[in-house]
From TrEMBL:
This is SusD/RagB family nutrient-binding outer membrane lipoprotein. It comes from Flavivirga jejuensis. PROSITE patterns: PROKAR_LIPOPROTEIN. The keyword Lipoprotein applies. InterPro entries: SusD-like_2, TPR-like_helical_dom_sf. Keywords: Lipoprotein. SUPFAM superfamilies: TPR-like. It comes from the Bacteria.
């Protein structure tokens, strides 16, 4: 009898353990079903968070364009991407955290009984923007075979002819022409950017198209001119009310990631560089108190890539660093005005470059709370005025755009590579070998392990998997 009792007890224990193990695989706090809106909102947040992030484990674009430099460690300010796998993080977040969720959201929307044209067009617009970030970060990337669970080793498509021009076609055919401004899309609570205002989404689509058109202005001016003109005709941003931005929240983990890095971390890792501080001092720029704190009554920046004592320099301003709810834009009205100024100079559109240049600078100063008087004083200086400041249009626009894009690391990096101004020199200990900041991110090491043949083909295609390799739009 004892033998049989033992067997029964062992059986009951086994059954109990099996049940417990099965329950461990169930997330009782998760939703029973996933909705198109929850996936859409999650992907939006992850995209904005990655572009805004400033953790040295995740995003070092502010260091690359020398807005900031480091104090405790200097590897990242010297463009070391590999020690912390920064290139891999950027790649993985955008593919898995952003594009994958947008794809699943679009799949669910497509399965709904009613036609959801605006929802699909909005998701498509986000996908286009995300691929735009990836292709301008790395060059050739997985595109036509990306996110296909049946393809473990996707090919890396050609950056310009296969990816970029297809993104422009998608923007025209799947987004701009599809938006129906008098019908609903995602609801105001689901759409954390424009609150369901489709007219705003269409303006952003056209403004992105303008930006993409100008990106290829040096490599394919004929195509660029057509893209730019059709974007403007359809309607781009006309005021700061159109800005494409997200509002973060006051409580972790949904604060602005800059606040998380500068305040919640309790670390003193970043200070502004003398590269930008000295230039703004020379120009008497009224945004200095919006960008930096004072050190002993003056604005003083650290040397990029070198050890800097946190207590001996200006810091990131309280307006930027101490506000958990500080908004983060992906595109602004002042960027559009800079693009229009350049389009006039290139002969793509008619108008006055100086007017758009002045509009852009004024919009940037006012974005940070500046006054009309500050705008007029700043623009009245011979070192700033379009008619008298030094250089050709690329130098004039590029320099002021770099100043306006402070704290916007990725966008600033793209425009610096495209316009080649201001002149930035790599730190003495930089990982680049040409005396310049990186022209691209290198491919993640994990791709070399899992998809070696296709990665090697991509490396050959773009001219080498190096920080110094220029991408398709960067011809000078």
């Amino acid at each position: 009898m004892k033998k049989y009792i033992t067997i029964v007890l062992l059986a009951l224990i086994a059954l109990s353990c099996t049940k417990d193990l099965e329950e461990l695989n169930v997330n009782k706090k998760d939703f029973a079903t996933t909705t198109d809106a929850s996936l859409f909102t999650s992907a939006q947040y992850k995209l904005f968070n990655q572009i805004t992030e400033t953790s040295v484990n995740e995003n070092i674009f502010r260091l690359i364009v020398q807005n900031w430099t480091e104090t405790t460690y200097t590897d990242e300010a010297n463009y070391d991407l590999k020690t912390r796998n920064i290139d891999e993080f950027h790649w993985e977040v955008l593919y898995r955290g952003v594009l994958k969720n947008f794809k699943e959201s679009k799949s669910l929307v497509s399965g709904l009984p009613d036609v959801q044209t605006n929802k699909i067009a909005t998701i498509e617009l986000y996908e286009i923007y995300t691929y735009y970030v990836l292709v301008t970060s790395f060059g050739d990337i997985p595109y036509t075979e990306a996110l296909d669970i049946d393809i473990l080793n996707p090919v890396f498509d050609k950056q310009e002819e296969t990816i970029f021009y297809d993104l422009l076609d998608r923007l025209d055919n799947n987004v701009i022409s599809k938006f129906i401004t008098d019908e609903v899309g995602f609801s105001a609570s689901e759409d954390i950017i424009y609150g369901g205002d489709i007219a705003k989404w269409k303006k952003f689509a056209n403004s992105l198209k303008l930006q993409m058109g100008m990106l290829i202005a040096d490599v394919n001016p004929t195509k660029a001119e057509t893209v730019v003109n059709t974007a403007i005709t359809s309607g781009v941003f006309t005021s700061a009310d159109d800005n494409m931005k997200i509002a973060f929240e006051s409580a972790a983990p949904y604060t602005n990631p800059v606040y998380a890095a500068l305040v919640l971390s309790g670390r003193d890792d970043f200070i502004p560089t003398n590269t930008i501080v000295d230039m703004m001092n020379t120009l008497n720029d009224p945004r200095r108190d919006d960008y930096f704190t004072l050190y002993e009554g003056a604005y003083k920046g650290g040397i990029s890539g070198e050890l800097n004592s946190f207590g001996q320099f200006s810091h990131v301003s309280d307006k930027i660093g101490n506000d958990p709810e500080l908004e983060a834009p992906l595109m602004t009205y002042y960027e559009v005005e800079f693009l229009l100024a350049e389009a006039v100079e290139r002969g793509f559109i008619t108008g006055t470059a100086e007017t758009h240049y002045n509009n852009a600078i004024a919009a940037s100063i006012k974005y940070w709370g500046g006054t009309d008087a500050e705008v007029n004083t700043y623009l009245g200086q011979t070192s700033v005025a379009y008619s008298s400041t030094t250089g050709n249009y690329k130098q004039k626009i590029g320099t002021q755009k770099w100043l306006a894009l402070y704290n916007r690391g990725f966008e600033s990096w793209t425009e610096w590579r495209r316009l080649d101004f201001p002149s930035l020199s790599a730190p003495a200990g930089a990982k680049t070998t040409n005396g310049q900041p990186p022209y691209r991110l290198t491919y993640p090491t994990v791709e070399l392990t899992l998809n070696e043949d296709n990665l090697n083909a991509a490396s050959t295609s773009i001219g080498g998997d190096e920080l110094e390799t220029k991408l398709f739009f960067d011809t000078f």
